[in-house]
Amino acid sequence: MFIHRFFLYQIKIFDFLDEQWESPRVNKFISNSVVVSFAFGLLVGLMNYLEIHTPLSSVSPFFSIELAFNVLLIFEILGLIFLIPRSVADSVGKQFEIISLILLRDAFKEFGHYLGDLKWEIDFLWELAPIVSDAFGAIVIFLITGIFYRNQRHVQITGNYEEQSGFISIKKLISIYLTLSFLAIGIYDLITAYQDQHFNTSLELFYTLLIFADVFILLFSLRYSSKYLNLFRYSSFALATIFLRLTLSAPPYFSVVLAIIAGLMVLGVTYIYNGMLKKSIQAVE
């Protein structure tokens, strides 16, 4: 009984946070945070460019864009966590949104190395290739994500309202623990950045936790439906998360290729699922 009340308390906390997350006040806070981080990074970068001493002496003005993207990614990941109880498919789409932003951030980050006089030689053109690759990959993922959202068909796998409510509650508990894990990872990153004077995000670790969360939701969903159609769809979504996790640590070019492969995979599964679902509904009628 105590454990049951403890879980209910956690679910109420999630519902409160979810309600606040959708409020205009939080949206304004997110926007202000991104703008302030951009202004701070731009100020530090310009001071370094003008050879004015700062604690972050190695950053360029393009650091402001990287910092703003990092802050935006933090809020995007929190948005992803809040999406999990609503729809597994929508949370997968959010993961691709995050990957596309990461690719854009990496492209801006590399541009920061070329603020001086440029020599348009063969070697320099080869150095630009990873930037072009990241930018092109972001655009392709952006396109795939839009098509993926447009073709989603949300079908309830539970038999009644009570089962649906229980399934959503389990996903809310998973989201709560993912949020706590994300905050712990963020605190660790800040401590490491202070000690090493260099900020590295632990997105790889968070995506690893996300893989286990996706697999758990997949296995738990089997108690409501073991249809091959739903099983394969959820499994492919979990596999796509693994591919996206690999893109975070893959070298240039390979990261883009892996992200596109993951996108094409979920897009293909979505089209096939919709076609088979339509046939099964027509067969019933």
How many extended strands? 0
Determine the strand fraction and express it as a percent band: under 5%
Mean pLDDT, nearest integer?
81
Round the Cα radius of gyration to an integer and report it.
21 Å
Measured between the Cα atoms of the first and last residue, the distance is 45 Å
**In which range does the helix fraction lie?**
over 70%
Number of separate helices: 9
Features of the shown structure:
about 280 residues, mainly alpha
Secondary structure: elements and pairs:
Elements: H1 2-21, H2 24-49, H3 63-83, H4 88-111, H5 122-150, H6 161-196, H7 203-221, H8 228-247, H9 254-284
Helix pairs in contact: 1-6, 2-3, 3-4, 4-5, 4-8, 5-9, 6-7, 7-8, 8-9
Description of the structure:
The chain is mainly alpha-helical. Helices cover 79% and strands 0% of the residues. It has helices at residues 2-21, 24-49, 63-83, 88-111, 122-150, 161-196, 203-221, 228-247, 254-284. Helix 2 (24-49) runs antiparallel to helix 3, helix 7 (203-221) packs antiparallel against helix 8 (228-247) and helix 8 (228-247) runs antiparallel to helix 9 (254-284). The longest helix has 36 residues, at 161-196. The radius of gyration is 21 Å and the shape is globular.
Briefly characterize the structure.
It is built from nine helices and no strands.
